[in-house]
Each structure stands twice: as C-alpha cells, then as structure tokens.
Amino acid sequence: MSRPTVAVVDLKSLRSNFALAQSLAPGANAIPMVKANAYGHGMIEVSRALAESAPAFGVASIDEALTLRQAGIQQPILLLEGTFSCDEVAIAADNNFMLMVENLVQNDAIVNASISQPIIVWLGIDTGMHRLGFQPKEAIQAYQALKNSDNVAKPIIAASHFACADDMGSSATSAQLAIFDQWIKSQTLASGDIIKQSLANSAAILAWPKTHRDWQRPGYMLYGNSPFSEEQDNADKLIPVMSLQSAVISIRCISSGESVGYTANWTAKRDSTIATITVGYGDGYPRHAPNGTPVLINGVRCPLVGRVSMDMITVDVTDLDLVSIGDKVVLWGPELPVNEIAHHCDTIGYELLTRMPSRVPRIYVN
Ligand SMILES: Cc1ncc(COP(=O)(O)O)c(C=O)c1O
C-alpha cells in the first residue's frame, strides 16, 4: 500500500485536445508546448504520447530539450527563449533544436557560431507584449543578418506572442496582429522572401482564427483546460487531462463552536462532521485555498474548511449521507475544473498544474 494521493494523467484526453488544436487550423503545424514538465503532466510521457502526430515540441530551455532527446524524442525541438549562452548554439545545431532569437546577443551568437549544420531560427518580434523579441524596426536588421548567414536554415520563421488573447473583449490582440502583419508585408515587399509565421497560443488557436499561420504553439489547451474565464465554444470541447486524487483518512464529529486546523480559522456553526484528506500544499494543493473551496468526495462537492496543511486538508462532510475512511476524493479533474479551484485561490489553473511536485506520482492511463 502507498499513499493514495496521485495525479492520474489521461493520455487519450491529451491526444484528443491536440487533435482539436490541429483541426482548428488544418493547414498549419501545431507544436505541443511541453515546457515546465508539460505543465506538470510529465514532459517525457506527454511528448511520447503525442510523438506520432506532433511535428515538433516547444520547451523553455536547452536542458528541457536535451531531456526529451535523451528520452528518444526525434522531432525538432523549439527553444522558446532561445539560448542563454553562446555555447548552446553548437549544442542546438548538433541536436536539431530550433532557436527563437529574441535579441542581438542571441542573433550574433548564431551568426558567429561554428556549427555542424544550419539551425532553424524563429525571429521573435515584440508586437506589444514587451517581454521578449525585437522591436519591429530592429527586427529588420536582425532578419537581414540571419538571412545572410550560412548558419541559418531558410525560410526563417517570424514569431510573436500575444499578451491578452484570453480576453475576447480586449483590442490588444488585433493591435498586435496589425503590427505583425505590417512587418511581414513590408519585409516581403522589400526582400521578396516567403516568411513563415507563428503567433497563436491556446487562446488564439481557440478563438482568433486570423492569427492561425504556419505554426501554432498550443500549451494549456492540450492539458484540457480553457484559457478563458468565460465560456467559449471551442474551449468547451477540451477534456481535462489531469485528475488530482486522494482519499479520506480520518473522520470526526465536532460540536458547534469548535474550530478546525492551524490558526483555527474555521469554526463550526452547527454540529459538524469533518473528513481529513491526505493531500496538502506539499502536493501542490494551494495553501491559500479559502474555506468553501470545493472538494469532490464520492462525487459530491463538499467545502474545504480550515487551513491547508503540508500533507492534509479538512473538509466539511456534514451534508454527505455516507462517508468512510478510504473514500475517493478528487481535488481537480474532469468533474471539477482546475480553473475553478484556481479562481477560489486567486490564481490561474496554469500555476496549479505547473507547480505539482514530483512527490505526487503521475499515473498514466490510456
Ligand atoms: C512563446 C510562447 N508560445 C506559446 C505558449 C503557450 O501558451 P498557452 O499555454 O497559453 O497555450 C507560451 C506559454 O507560455 C509561450 O511563452
């Protein structure tokens, strides 16, 4: 017997979500974003599960890319932040990694490198998010330098990232798109080159068809949760991939007026039955989850009461007809969206999934 706290990862749902991303832009390549341990789901298992249909994978660093190579993944791997030092350029060339180029230091590192084969380069253009990428004017010189370099495979891919694609009411996405399109138009006119393009993250794939270009970069949607806080037709077809599960390990009756847990921050207003579950912030369940956050016990939503401990939480099960030690508990999953838990905790589902620690065994099904 071992601790019943596990993250069940349904690979069939993962494949279905990826197929949705592909079907929304059938003329384009969709690259699964598997950085940050595939948003907590296990980057090797997720990449292997998608390897048959994915043309490439996206990660945040060369270390993540090498982990995939060592696991036998053969596709090109895109480093979304490019290189962090010059020596990484040769490693990228040797391993068929594609490099995002976001600044002049990275640009020079590629152009001046002595490498085994040309590298596929993605030129990052800052169209308004102001986090990474060349300003559109600077991107013209960067593009020329890359184009003239034998170290760079052609065609170059121009890329940008949206700040607000998950907000359908915001004008920011259209404004970023207009800047990007203007840049592509002027460069195409000036050079006659065909420039491949990549813009769309999950929200853009789901809801902004004008942003669908040659390469899509789906992340969060693959894991089956919506990047939107409102309902959205395509996002409603996603199936959550991870189910964080545990079990009841203790049950007690307390009298009205008695408190539960560290700091005694919840006091029973009636005689109550309290179930203790073996999951806590040491398992990635958010410590700041407030009283009332829903927890599924035997399929019924019950309110969290008392502070989340490192290894346990306490739940008010007074209204449950039957509850026993060993009963199944779901903290989030298809029946209880992680976005809903995140909303209670004033964060986003991305964070809850991504910071799931290794202590929670991932159980892969389907
Ligand atoms: C450059 C880039 N592209 C794509 C993605 C995927 O975004 P999402 O998980 O919202 O689909 C990210 C996520 O951080 C990113 O940084």
Automatic annotation (TrEMBL):
Cofactor(s) for this UniProt protein: pyridoxal 5'-phosphate
Annotated EC: 5.1.1.1
One of the GO biological process terms: D-alanine biosynthetic process
GO molecular function annotation: alanine racemase activity; pyridoxal phosphate binding
Top-level taxon of the source organism: Bacteria
One Pfam entry name: Ala_racemase_C
Cellular component terms (Gene Ontology): cytosol
SUPFAM superfamilies linked to this entry: Alanine racemase C-terminal domain-like, PLP-binding barrel
Residues at the active site: 35 (proton acceptor), 262 (proton acceptor)
Residues recorded with modification N6-(pyridoxal phosphate)lysine: 35
Alphabetized SMART domains for the sequence: Ala_racemase_C
Every Alanine racemase C-terminal domain range: 241-365
Alphabetized UniProt keyword annotations: Isomerase, Pyridoxal phosphate
Binding-site residues, substrate: 131, 310
Primary enzyme class: isomerase
Keyword presence, Isomerase: yes
Pathway of action: Amino-acid biosynthesis; D-alanine biosynthesis; D-alanine from L-alanine: step 1/1
Catalyzed reactions: L-alanine = D-alanine
Function field: Catalyzes the interconversion of L-alanine and D-alanine. May also act on other amino acids.
Family: Belongs to the alanine racemase family.
UniProt name for this protein: Alanine racemase
Gene name as annotated: alr
